[in-house]
Amino acid sequence: MYEQIARNRRLSWLLMGVVVALFALVGYVFGLAWTGEQYGGLGLLGVFGVVAIAWSIIGYYTGDKMVLAVSGAHQVTHAEEPRLYNVVEEMTIAAGLGQPPAVYVVEDPALNAFATGRDPAHSAVAVTRGLLERLDREELQGVVAHEMSHIRNYDIRFATLVGILVGVIALVADFFLRSTFFGMGRRRGGDSGGGSAPIVLVALVLAIVAPLAAAAVQFAISRRREYLADASGVELTRNPLGLARALHEIAADPRQLGAANRATAHLYIENPLRRRRASGPLFATHPPVEERIAVLLQMAHAGPEALVSRESGGAAEGETSPGGGAP
Amino acid sequence: MTTLIIIVLVIIAVVVLALVAIYNSLVKRRNQVDNSWSQIDVQLRRRHDLIPNLVEAVKDYMEFEQETLTRVTEARAAAISAEDRGPEAQARAENMLSDALKSLFAVAENYPDLKANQNVMSLQEELTATENKISFARQFYNDSVLTYNNRIQTVPSNIVAGLFNFTTRQYFEAPETAREVPKVDLR
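^ inputs. structure came back:
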């Protein structure tokens, strides 16, 4: 686990460095493409570099707030959501962390959850209303334990930075892609300066490649983390079936989470965009949920029928809504 | 001659540094054990505080279950008085309290009015949560004790532990029910 923490810290720094360098490079190319002069390139390099550094710092310190705001999550107190709050506290104790993360709810009937922050002392767990209503206590515990593992091993820092920084790369690239087309049209009408066509081409290629590369990085890193968080979550609850049943329920639910986007999808316990686009294995943010469930069932030495036996087993929990149990 | 002195000095320095590092890690482990023990303590006290409220809230509904209620109250008193008698005695008393509470909630199933009472429901949630927190705190405490005791009993840290009087700690034993073999469905 300590290696995992060190690795995430290192990766966070590396990511910020790479993003600043990439930004500076993109700035140089765009500057060159726009003005056709070396100075223009260097000027934009400086501007982009400073912007990227500032954005990294802002992302590091307030990224969690941005992610929570974008996701439409609102903080809840113990009095408002006693069960969720208690489960979060239980998992904090099991993980041996000092203070519990802030607890948020996303008012959405879809089933999902995520964690964000920069370290365990500055962290938050958010779950959707649908998850709260549909999962029993054991299942909720499994989900929260999974998120607590992300918090404990600093996945949240790296993942939040990826969301903030990669999200903005895609945004900026999109912007320049549009303005380059726009600018080309304008220049053709104004003066006859032709020579910058190849550089415009380079700018175009960059604008396409930058978000793709960023997205590929984002996807490559988060899949192994999900397996790891599943396993160390079970280490906390000592109950693989809770999480297995929760994942089963989450996967069976057809509803789409409204507030998730490409920059935040990898933060969730199960890909919230799964039905929006058919993505190949290279671009999958999460391992197939069936495989995750199979691994968990193996841990419990149980067969698939263990996934549906909760109606008979968990009668004492009492909190599950009777209406929507059919998978 | 001088090279020999240098070699000896280097060896001494390395040994001292290693001793310091081992000593520090032992202290860290011991602090973690103490800290996780206090975490259990906090939750046990919280449970002791919640029980009178619960007994008060269910009393009117369960007038025919005096025996169950008395058992809970007595188990609570016994648990409180066991607080200073070390982990083993305390664990035994607390486990009896857990059992008494379990049977109270089992009996409560027979009283629909009681189950519908908002106050009782929220008390039950709090007690369930506290119960879970106790067992998770115990789990973390026992894990901490395991690593700490391993350090004390294995080479080379056992030498440092012997020199500075680090002693092994007791586990907080889980109740009998938690030790049952988990149900295995053979299909």
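Residues 177-187 of chain B have pLDDT under 50 and may be disordered. Residues 2-59 of chain B form the longest helix (58 residues).
thumbs up if we can close this ticket
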